[in-house]
## 1
Amino acid sequence: MNSFFDLHYAAQILPALLRASMYTILITLIGFAIALVLGLVLAVLRRSPVKAVSRTVGFIVEFIRSTPLLIQVYVLFYVLPVYGITMSALTAGTVGIALHYACYTSEVYRAGLNGVARGQWEAACALSLSPWRTYSGVILPQAIRPVIPALGNYLVAMFKDTPVLSAITVVELMQQAKNIGSETFRYLEPITLAGIFFLLISVTFAHLVRRLEYGLRLP
């Protein structure tokens, strides 16, 4: 047995950390799916010709982007129950991280929409296409493809931000590692394994995003 890094102890705690990593991946995927959809809605609303809508959405996006995720999940979990809105720690954490990153993805989408040639918008208008057909059939296929790498970066960033949710008692990967360490007073093995899991899963996410980008590339 190595007194510096106990391989036998590491093997014992590995199943618990694997379960926590699956839990963390689930939170990330659900939160990112919400962020992708909500971010697109926010980006479209921010382009609304109605000033009240575009400015309100712009303020909300900038406000959420400019405040820490930790404060936002604290508000969802500890403050909202005072006003009758109660959520479980898992729900509050998932909603919080999804809303936070939806505002970032909305800016990515907005950059993609602004990158579509003005002639495409004018052509859709000349053909009397409805707003839905304009976006779904003409604009979004051109706007989303170039911003896939940026969206993928936020997927990895969201995964690495999940330890913040431990502040509201969500037992994700890092919190599980800390719990194991507090039980045995050996932190080296669980923290090291958690770091390795974060590295491997982040690299896997990044690889999948690159594969998606390659599959959607223009001929």
## 2
Amino acid sequence: MNLALIIIIVVAIVLAIVGGLNTALQWLLWVALIVGVIALIAFLFRVITGSRRA
């Protein structure tokens, strides 16, 4: 095989992996934000109601 063709294939594979990781990280960022908001609401509810569970 031609060396240039091998280099192009390797670059294409690396770019595909990086693109997939970018999409996965964006999805995980949204999940983390949603979980953080839920945790904040639960914390505020606990503070407002005055529950002191250990």
## 3
Amino acid sequence: MNWLKSTLSAAVGTQEPIYGPEAIQSVAKQAEETPYTVLSKDDLRWKAYQYTNVETQTFYIMADNGTLVMVQVIYSNIVGIHTTAHFNTKIFNLQGNGDHVWHSDPLTNFMFDEHMLSFGADNMTITLNEEGDSYTIKSTVNPNSLVDLKFTRKAPGFAVGKNGTSYFGTDPKNPWGSMSHAFWARCAVEGTITTKEKTYDLTGRGVFIPALQGMKPHHAAARWNFINFQTPTYSAIMMEFTTPPSYGSTKVNVGGILKDGEIIYAGAGNTITHTASALDPESEWPEPTSIKWEWTGKSADGQEVSAEVDGALGKRLDRVDVMGEVPGFIKAIAGSVAGTRPYIFQYSPKEKLSLKLKIGDTEIVEEGFMFSESTFIS
């Protein structure tokens, strides 16, 4: 979203024509033949394309002591002439009695290793090990957020379809944009983040998501929904975006259900429903108050799989005004001309929800720790 701020002034007023739903080649079409692909080490390479795009590596942590954290590096290229990188950390205040610990720092002298598998900058590294199953994240970029973390994959990584990518454009052989996600949905985490107030022990469970958005963000998606749900035995993940009307308000949904050492299901047969909402007066968006997430498909051995997380979201953790730091005149023009008004709503209910999972004739119900986001852009 830092990239959205930095490119918005150049993008204001550039609403696209109505191309129709045939101008997006959803990854769901790939998934009809290949539900998912297990990630190899090569699949984790940074792309660093030389055209307008934003590439991210995002790490979510649900510590055993209840701490919820996001760590992220954003690498972006604006029309092939200006490249930037940021390192973000957010320690959520789950008690609702104070601010979140949020830092977003520009990186200098950033670069990749020769294999494009690891990323570094002054006072910061994200390193993939030789086996390709563990990342080490170290940062002293911000003295108020000293990061020393290790993520170890405990279940196979996956991308939906053949490569996890949806393509935009009227000529499928020559797309003008793309959207790509991959997942390590079940990781073991060890390490700490140290602020000026305390050191946070982040031993627990984690998720790693590499993503690439190869076009202007408000052209690719008007809405986003995301859930990361962790139980003692299972991990459930889902990411959905809805295109603007230019591409037929098409929904693209990818996700999976995993446990240690195994992908139970992964594919595009998933749905998200905002079962209740209320108008948020500041953003003027219909903020969800209850959501139902559903996964449907088959396991690797052909059994029918269905899963559900359904319930009230409780008091939101945060409402992020993405354009809060953008000058007022740009914000006003963007909202009135381009219809761009991005807000992110983040949730982690105090009342635990349950994952209801059915594999063949076996039914399992487990309570878990949830983090979810609903984003409205345009």
